[in-house]
Write a structure and sequence with these properties.
alpha/beta, Alpha/beta knot, 2 domains, seven-stranded parallel beta sheet, 7 strands
């Protein structure tokens, strides 16, 4: 691993936002999912939630699957599972949608723990998801079209969240729990070894704090052989 890559991994991890997430409510198009995951990575989101569409994904494999190398994706059978948990953890739940009480997306305080819910491409936000929402938000538009592509809307809203958090001094402070930060670094820096350890259900080997390389790989490998 080069010193530059080691520094890049540490910098990205130190900017991760553990209390900002996205919940995709049966978004099914692979191209949109890929763009959403990329946007999440770009604003420091470490983990997102995807509700499996009842009709399945369209071209999901090979399109969005490679994008989650940097963002953890947790899947759910229905929208109530992730939203109920996030509400219990103190997240505000916001979603793009029109309604009597919807506000400009910039009027929301995204420095709070926030979950952004994304409705499906054709059917929009489900009734179940609306029941969990604290606030509906809308992006001002002055053209003929009434809505934006779901991935485009996600990017616009999350950039506002990033802007607010940067102004508040939140960005740039190490916020991931240490155990999670160490684990994520190893998964990024040594993906093949991490996959091997995960499959065998064995701990990751220790790495050097100076260069991120595995400490005494031969000794660790010998212990793995003995474990097998």
């Amino acid at each position: 691993m080069t010193p530059q890559r080691y520094h890049t991994l540490l910098t990205v991890l130190n900017n991760r936002q553990p209390d900002l997430t996205v919940v995709a409510d049966e978004v099914h198009k692979g191209r949109n999912l890929s763009a959403i995951i990329r946007t999440c990575d770009s604003v420091g989101i470490d983990k997102i939630h995807m509700v499996t569409p009842k009709m399945g994904y369209r071209d999901y494999r090979g399109t969005a699957s490679g994008s989650n190398k940097w963002v953890e994706v947790e899947t759910h059978a229905d929208i109530c599972q992730p939203l109920a948990t996030l509400k219990q953890l103190g997240y505000q739940v916001v979603a793009a949608g029109l309604g009597a009480n919807s506000v400009n997306y910039r009027d929301v305080d995204y420095t709070k723990p926030t979950a952004l819910v994304l409705g499906a491409e054709k059917n929009g936000l489900s009734a179940e998801a609306k029941g969990f929402c604290d606030q509906l938000i809308q992006i001002p538009m002055i053209g003929m079209v009434e809505s934006l592509n779901v991935s485009v809307a996600t990017a616009i809203i999350l950039q506002e969240a990033l802007l607010q958090r940067n102004k508040a001094g939140i960005i740039g402070t190490r916020r991931l729990p240490e155990e999670q930060r160490v684990r994520r670094f190893f998964q990024w820096a040594h993906p093949k070894v991490a996959e091997f350890c995960d499959n065998k259900r064995i701990p990751y080997p220790p790495v050097s704090s100076e260069d991120g390389e595995i400490i005494d790989a031969s000794t660790w490998y010998q212990s793995v052989r003995e474990h097998r």
